[in-house]
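WARN no homologs supplied; continuing
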Amino acid sequence: MTLFWTIAAALSLAIWLYLLAFRGGFWRCGERLGTAPAPAAWPAVVAIVPARDEAASIGEAMSALLAQDYPGPFRVVLVDDESRDGTAAIARARARELDAEARLTVISTRPRPAGWVGKVWAMASGLAHADEAGWDADYLLFTDADIHHPPGNLRRLVATATARDLDLVSLMVRLAREGAAQRLLIPAFVYFFQKLYPFPWVNRGRAAAAAGGCMLVSRARLRQAGGLEAISDALIDDCALARAIRQAGGRLWLGLADDTRSLRPYEGLGGVWQMVARSAYTQLGHSPARLLGTILGMLFTYVAGPFAVLAWPWHGEGSALALGLAAWAAMVVSFRPTLRLYGEAWLLGVLLPLAGILYLLMTMESALSHHRGRGGVWKGRIGAGATKD
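OK structure emitted
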């Protein structure tokens, strides 16, 4: 049994050495938007905002979006997706208060065709309206109804896209968090996303990913990619869109936001759990083999090393203790930049194994929900991963 602990801890440390050295430096949190030179002429942009029961955040989100200091033509389409809480009325009222009614158009989604995910259909409805209105947008800003954009955000996104000849520029916005559980789980979510899709790899063309809260997309490249029809059934729409853009020859950039942020905190552990369980098994392609591989991988990556340390009084193996401590220390070191981004103390990184266990349990529940026919439940809808709708 003592040999088991040594092997497990050694494997965990080997995994962490690989992640630190050969996974694109994902953990450094180095991909930031920065400032790019302004284009000779600012292209036309249409922002499309799907909204379903967003009364709590839509007012502030619309205020920030309508107040963008963008020098070029800019319109906002709010797509009211069968809201029952007055979302559309609040948005219109906020536009009147800001004297920005000419910039905002509010539409309702048409009946959703079979095979379309609700959010993607709302995005497509907004795009169809923009095209029918003849606005001839050069870029589309797909953003959520709970995102606060600082005044210069759109200008910086467009300047980056034009200066670097990019077809999709996306920001992982700063996620809101409340309570002790979310102080650990929200930074861990951002950390795990970076590990799954190393941002430097995305920006060098080695991977395809995006963050759905803030995506600036070239209209011409989206047409070449087959439009939103190409991702109509995608529950994880942001990464699906990134793959479609890349397959069409487009160039991607993905980074971390400093001041673009989400306004909606998840409600305790349960809120984060629902968010992850909604789509985790979809990320694995609904594959039992991938699920098994994920379980084993997470256990050896996040659990084996710390358990070898905590179990030392029972197994008494000094080499297992040393290897386990080294693996645990690597976790803390790699998590520190993400914790710094969220203003958290580096010591919180000691609990990263706990976060890993919780996210693993969320993934397992996601798989169970899928096989029970309840995959992808969000805001009262059963999503594309389900067997009944």
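Confidence is low (pLDDT under 50) at residues 384-389.
OK
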